[in-house]
Each structure stands twice: as C-alpha cells, then as structure tokens.
Amino acid sequence: MCVCSPRVVLYLLSHHGRLALVTKGWLATVVFGAVACSVVVSYAQEQPVDPPSPSESGVAPDAAVESERAPESEDAVAPDGSADSSSHEGAVEEDGESSTPAESSESASSPGRTSGCRGVAGHTGFADGSGCAGADDVAPLRYELERIEVRGNHRTRASVVLRYVGVRAGDVVVVDDHEWKFVQYRLLGTGYFQSVNLSLRKGSRRGKVVLVIDVVERNTIIVSDLWMGLSADADTQGNGRPLTAYAGADVVETNLMGTGITVGAGMGFAQEQLALRARFFDPSTFGTQWMTSASVLYNDALEFYGNRDVVYDDSYDAGAKLVDYAVVQYRRVGGTVRVGRDLSSAWQGWLGVQLERIDATVPLMASHRRGLDIEPIEFGLDRGVSVHSSVGLTLRYDTRDTPNLPTRGEHITIAVEGSLAPLGSDYPFERFTLGASKWFGLPWNHVVRLGVFGGAIVGKAPIFERFYVGDFSDLLPSRMHGLNVDRRPTHNFLRTSIVEVRYGDYAAKVFGEYRIPLYRGSSAVYGIDFFGSGGFFAVASERDLREPPRGYHGASKIPVDLTFNTGLQIDTHAGSFTFAFSSVLGFIPVRSEARP
Predict the structure, then answer these.
(1) pTM
(2) To 10 degrees, the CA torsion angle through 538, 543, 546, 549?
C-alpha cells in the first residue's frame, strides 16, 4: 500500500477558502499523489540494471566461499583473494551486542539481511553455513554474520558508520546481494569519507563471516555553498542599476566530534540585501533510527516587479511616478523543524513544519505593460505584518555512487507542501514538485547526466515560494539563501512570451549535462571535471496559461526558453565548487526582449 500524497486543507476550509480553489487543490493532490506513488513503487521494485561486481563493491563472494573451505584463520581475505593482516581500528560489534542503540537498529530493508533465511530472491533454508535450499537449483551464498569491524575511522565513531549498514551480528547475509552497493553509496553520501570498501572475511567457525568496512576519512568542515557574481538590480526607488556584486557562503561541520551531527551557518549579501542562516542535523536522534533537522533564517530582502512602463505609487509619496521597476522591501524571520527516517537503503522520508513572520512595505499601487495592455502588478506579499506557515512531506531516492562528481545512479525528490491554518498562515496554497536526475558512465570515462523537473502551485503562495525564472536559467543568478539579486528577465532566445514572466505557479525543465574528467587525486583536490550543460525550461502563472499576453501568436504564446552553461566542477578538501561562465555570458548582449 502506498500513501504518498497527504493533504493540508485546513486553511482552504476556513473563511478564506473558495470552492474553486478547493476543487483545484484536490485535483492537483490526487494527480500528484498518483505520480509520486507510481514512482515510489516502480523504484522500490526495480532491480539494478548492472549489479555491482565484487571488484566494484568490495564485497568478495569468492573470498566468502574460500572462508568456508579453507582452514580457520584470522587472516582477512581481500576482494582479490589475497590475505590481509592489517590492524583493526575503531569499535567492533561482537556477538550481537552493540555499544549504542544505533548500532543494533532493525531495518526490514537492510542489505543482505534475511529473516528465516529468506533472501531477496525468495530462497528459504537454514543458516548452517551450507547455504539455503530454495526453489532454484542454485541458491545464493548465505552466511551468518559473526561481527562487524570498522577500520580507518580515526574521527568518526563506529556507531555512526554502523547506522548506515543496517545489519548486525547474528543476521544471515547474502554475499552477492546488490544492496551492499547501496550501503557503500550511502556511506560515501554522508560526506564523512573519501573512500569506502566493504569485504567479507571468514569467521571463527564454519558458516560464519566477518564484515569488514574500510574507510578513508575526509575533511568534514566544508564550504557547502558558495556564491560570487555580478547582477543587475534596482535601488529602493525603482531605478535600475546596471551592475552590482553579490556574494554568499554556507559553512558546515558535517561530523561534529565524530557523532555524525551537522551544524552550519550561512550568509548572503547584495546591494541593500542580507540573508542569515543557521542549521542543525542529527542522523540518529537519541540513538534511534529517526533523523531530525532544524534551521532558522533572517532575510532583509528586495523584490523587483514590472516589465516596462512601470507606474509606481508608494505610501510615502504624494503621487504616482514613472520608474524602471516597482520595488518591495520585506523582512523574513522564522525557521523550520523536520523529522525523517530511512525507508530503505535508497529511500528517505521527511516531514517538516515551517513558520515565518513577514513584514513587507508594499506600494499602494503599481502597474506595468503586459503584452499590449496596462495591468496592475500582483506583489505576492501582504502589506505590513503577515504569517507564513506550512507543513511539508518530502521523499528522496538516492543511489549515486558519490554526492560529489557522481558517475552513476539516480536522485529523485518528491515534495508536497501546504499552508497551515492552525498556525495562522495568511497564504493559503499547496506546492508540488518532482525532480529526477540520472547519471551514466560512458566507456571512455566521461559522464552524462539527464534530468527533469516539474512543479505546480495552487492558491496564494508568498513570492519567495513561487517559481522564479532565475532558478531555471543558468544565465541569470539564482536565488541565494532566498535573496533575489537580479531584476532582468530571461534571455528569451526563442522569442516567446516568457519575456513577460518573472514568477510563476507552474514550472518545468528538461536538461542534460556532459562531464569530462580532467584530474583525480587524493590530497587537497580530489577531482576536477570540465562540464557543459543545456536544456529547455518553462515558467508560467495560471493566468499566463489561461489568458496569454496579447500580441503573441501561435507557439510564441508558450513561455519557454533555452538555457546553457559551461565551466569546471571541482571536488576539494574544503568542499565542492562550480566555476561557471554562465554569469559572465549572461551579460553578453544577445538577449531578445522582442515584445509586441
């Protein structure tokens, strides 16, 4: 049974709700829920296209067979079958006992684990070391796990490593289970380790094996996000500025004192704008399988409105005036609390609550030219103090071999968010997003990435929750910690009505990326790749689809545009960085602002 589309309708049923909005919201929820459920079910049932070979995963089936036939010894058997007498570092889980509850956590989807000697292929039998008899003539190799050894973890506690393994002493494991590869990917995905290798060694008795996890740790104080670039914005009076600078950073400790806890802080600033962030993440709250995260934010921000012929009247001026842009100043203060849990070795589920206080200075009125008509501007923020609160559900599927410069795997995010009336939300809305990417390694060691994104908003979402063209076009700066630092429209290479769109209720993107490895190392710089990417995106409000701007005909009514980028992706001791040339390319005068 799949339940993937919870519905927040409390506010819609209050005095602000309308029947039409409720109907649209229910329809969107049902459709999105059906899509989300189908994706979850299909991936849960999917078998890997290319199961990992022993040499890739570090799990050595041949070594396990040898451990049953050879005389008993404490010598480790490496994936290539050679002996390994290296010393053991870190804590060891022995005889079913673990030092912390996290080490002995149960998981129905744990890699290689069987219940009653029932494996992923449905074979049954006994855990006596001779393998389990099944319906097939050839049964998979199964052994009782005697203990788990973690080596190389000088800073990271063994209990943190074991949390991502999902098996414990006494379990019956399948040697060639493809889930071992996912365990390796999950450990690499934590960001704690530069490399992870899993292998099986013969145990103290026939039919028993020891799981050995060798890790090489990496620096965990990293710059998780870094922004530096040039933009074109406007001052608070609505006068356009041709060139301004912006910068920001997010610094985190992803493995605080070896506990796996993440703490971080970030800051972003542009002309007359400031953003501050702080966050916390615990992957094993009170030693349980539940994860928790929390974040707080402060934004002193500007938003820029208007296409052309903007007339602007604020509360401090006696009359209307003609300006380049209508500008709204606002402050956001609030935070988010979330709880999550691993649903399998690849799936995670999160449930969160967001609460913010907004104080906005909104003009008394403003208008601009949309197509051939002069129309009022809809600001997407209430004047004065308002409250934004919501509850959200997120599902994530991740099988990438590494979060930095991946060469294979998939990453899927499904998110549903809705306003929360009991906390006094002034913005009744629902937001649905689905993003997916897949990486392919080519025979000549190049990497291809294909991705799609789709999103829809029903109701009255605050402006910072809507889809922004700069988040989809590589030639415009994306939002930095929620700050919008650029007032330009998209480049409109295809000469469509998207030049009239800045924010939308619907968005879609299809893109591809090609990466060429230039360098691989093991010291300060782990890897450098040259990349090129491109794709198509569309952003539109409900009105843009229902009533396109007058003056556009045929296919030009569809608000779609082209995007592309090129540069270097670098994985270093201090974090991963992308040096892209798109920001500079965005200032080259190839923009088409052709309008009716």
Answers:
(1) 0.73
(2) -80
